[in-house]
Design brief:
The complex is a heterodimer of chains A (416) and B (105). With 416 residues, chain A is an alpha/beta fold. Chain A folds into 3 domains: 175 residues, 3-Layer(bba) Sandwich (FAD/NAD(P)-binding domain); 137 residues, FAD/NAD(P)-binding domain (3-Layer(bba) Sandwich), CATH 3.50.50.60; 82 residues, no CATH class. Helices cover 23% and strands 25% of the residues of chain A. Chain A contains 7 helices and 24 strands. In chain A, the strands form 8 sheets. In chain A, strands 5-2-1-9-20 form a 5-stranded parallel beta sheet, with helices on one face. Chain A has a 5-stranded parallel beta sheet with strand order 11-18-12-13-14. A 3-stranded antiparallel beta sheet of chain A has the order 6-7-8. Chain A starts with a strand and ends in a 26-residue tail after the last helix. The mean pLDDT of chain A is 95. Chain B is globular, with a radius of gyration of 13 Å. Chain B is mainly alpha-helical. In chain B, a hairpin with a 2-residue loop joins strand 1 and strand 2. In chain B, helix 1 crosses helix 5. Chain B has a two-stranded antiparallel sheet. The chains are: A alpha/beta (416), B mainly alpha (105). The interface between A and B is medium-sized, with 19 and 17 residues. The structure holds flavin-adenine dinucleotide. Flavin-adenine dinucleotide binds next to helix 1, strand 2 and helix 6 of chain A.
């Protein structure tokens, strides 16, 4: 019998899962069909560099189909809805796909229209986001023309993709205006709904300290209720205000709207409830999910998606073979944080262990939670790995799905 | 484990004042818990939120975030901030006697 595997989304997770599954099964054993709405695969970590003219928009996009190996069918159409109980997907172009196994990899949606005023007057002019290619490009032009004043970076609410990216943006903005010899005439303020610069305590302290060292103001527990582009103000639900000349806003994120139209597939925010260790969805045993589309309590990051890919492919195979699933995904995440002036730092963590100082992957290796030139080069090199190793589904030497513990220093062993 | 006395009963709470055993909570405790949060009278919409929090906790093992509350409780986020100023999810969780809603990462 030929198994029909359908994969929704041809971004990071869908592409690497398709390529790995194709290696696992001959064309007689399984057909693999991938669906996406467009043919523009964006290397999203590169979006951070576009506003500062450190990357050109063209440099970070490639056609989706070119990333998929032979014998993977690619269909370009928006997804209308999934009928989990009927093992069927409906596409907007009218195509109906029947599946034996479904992999949901449609990522997170940006929902700027859910915040009052955000897409109103000033949107794309003085109110920006760098989370889309168009947004990052418009922001580049705005920053190039910026002649001083108040630059505000605002995270509306969690969860967001790559929770460190807005902090990296703040660090790079500090570098950018210093480099242009106008840092004195720019006030940079970082406005977050969290009670600190970041979610995890040890890293939050370090990152908060780095904002302070750079003269970047930190406003915490700010729940943005309205963005007033015309008046240049962020207004919180508890009626605090932060004035701006240019605002860089990370909009609300949710799952994709089609998830909400698919009976039983999603939660209140359209994310797919998924077992955090096996990546099997809670809706149906033959539906799996990975990447930003799930509700697992891990960062919405490419590294998470990559590590999840190992367990997901293993479990799709076990499911098809009628075997017990492997519950080994540990929430491993690994992120370079660009800190400006040609440096970056690395954090490595999982469901149970917060980002700690030390070295990665073992006692000899890249410094963790500490700025270095090597980490910056690592971050730049990652784009090459993304297209040539991560998407094709090859292993990256030294970086496995399980979080390494040697080389990390626990808070107790840290000298005060 | 710290304890406190609410409506004449001793209950277990954590350092941040969240119930560690939600089964110790009764509706009679809510007005006193609310007062400690600066809410003098519990109106019908307050009760809608409190009961919704309890129900969500029982079904899912964690209280909802403000955004999920705004989408599913029938009370808008703006109203939530009027009912439970300064952090509706946390304050409503304390009043409803459930643990701190698991935030996001
Ligand atoms: C600014 C920024 C910086 C980042 N930096 C980093 C970083 O440094 N390190 C890191 O690890 N991660 C980073 N990330 C996060 C990383 O890019 C994502 O976590 C990762 O791409 C998630 O993969 P995914 O497959 O889940 O989703 P995606 O790669 O987003 O793919 C989802 C796909 O589904 C398709 N789709 C959605 N809805 C439909 C529909 N209805 N019909 C058809 N197709 C649909 C989309 O077109 C898309 O191709 C960053 C993200 C951003 C925005």
């Amino acid at each position: 019998m030929t198994h029909r595997i359908v994969i929704l989304g041809a971004g990071t997770g869908g592409t690497l899962a398709a390529n790995r599954l194709r290696r696992e099964y001959s064309t007689d054993e399984a057909t693999i069909t991938v669906v996406d709405q467009d043919d523009v695969h964006v290397y999203q970590p590169g979006l951070l560099f576009v506003p500062f003219a450190l990357a050109r928009p063209d440099d970070i996009v490639r056609p989706r189909q070119d990333q998929l190996h032979d014998h993977i069918e690619y269909i370009q159409s928006p997804i209308e809805a999934v009928e989990p109980d009927a093992d069927r997907v409906h596409l907007t172009d009218g195509t109906v796909l029947d599946f034996d196994v479904l992999v949901v990899a449609t990522g997170a949606a940006l929902l700027p229209e859910e915040t009052e005023g955000l897409t109103g007057p000033g949107w794309g002019e003085k109110v920006h986001t760098f989370y889309t290619l168009e947004g990052a490009t418009a922001l580049r032009d705005s920053l190039a023309a910026f002649d001083g004043g108040r630059l505000v970076i605002n995270v509306v609410d969690m969860p967001i993709k790559c929770p460190v990216a807005p902090l990296e943006f703040a660090f790079l903005a500090d570098w950018f205006f210093t480099d242009r010899k106008m840092r004195d005439s720019v006030d940079i303020t970082y406005v977050t709904p969290l009670d600190a610069a970041f979610t995890k305590p040890v890293a939050a302290k370090r990152l908060g300290g780095m904002l302070a060292e750079r003269g970047i103001d930190l406003v915490t527990e700010f729940n943005t209720g309205e963005v007033d582009g015309e008046g240049g103000r962020l207004v919180s639900y508890d009626e605090r205000e932060v004035p701006f000349d240019v605002a860089v806003v990370i909009p609300l994120h949710g799952g994709q709207p089609y998830v909400g139209r698919s009976p039983g597939l999603g939660d209140a925010l359209d994310f797919v409830p998924t077992d955090p260790h096996t990546l099997q969805s809670q809706s149906r045993p033959n539906v799996f999910a990975l990447g930003d589309a799930t509700n697992v309590p891990a960062s919405k990051a490419g590294s998470v998606t990559h590590f999840e890919g190992d367990v997901l492919v293993e479990n799709v195979s076990r499911f098809i073979a009628g075997e017990e699933l492997d519950a080994s995904y540990d929430g491993h995440a690994n992120c370079f944080i660009e800190t400006g002036f040609g440096k970056a730092m690395l954090i490595d963590f999982n469901y149970d262990t917060e980002p700690l100082p030390g070295h990665f992957p073992s006692k000899v290796g890249m410094p963790l939670l500490k700025e270095s030139r090597a980490n910056h080069l690592g971050k730049l090199m990652f784009q090459w790995f993304y297209w040539h190793a991560l998407l094709p589904g090859r292993d990256i030497p030294g970086i496995g799905p399980d979080m390494p513990t040697t080389g990390k220093r626990s808070p107790e062993s840290e000298s005060p | 484990m710290p304890t406190k006395t609410v409506a004449g009963t001793t209950v277990e709470v954590n350092d941040e004042g969240f119930f560690t055993d939600p089964s110790q909570w009764t509706e009679e405790m809510a007005p006193e818990l609310a007062e400690a949060e600066g809410i003098d009278t519990l109106t019908d919409p307050h009760w809608t939120v409190i009961r919704f929090m309890r129900q969500e906790f029982e079904e899912k093992g964690t209280g909802p975030t403000v955004r999920a509350l705004g989408k599913t409780s029938g009370v808008t986020v703006k109203e939530l901030y009027q009912l439970f100023p300064k952090g509706p999810a946390k304050i409503a969780a304390r009043v409803a006697g459930i643990p701190k809603p698991r935030g996001c990462i």
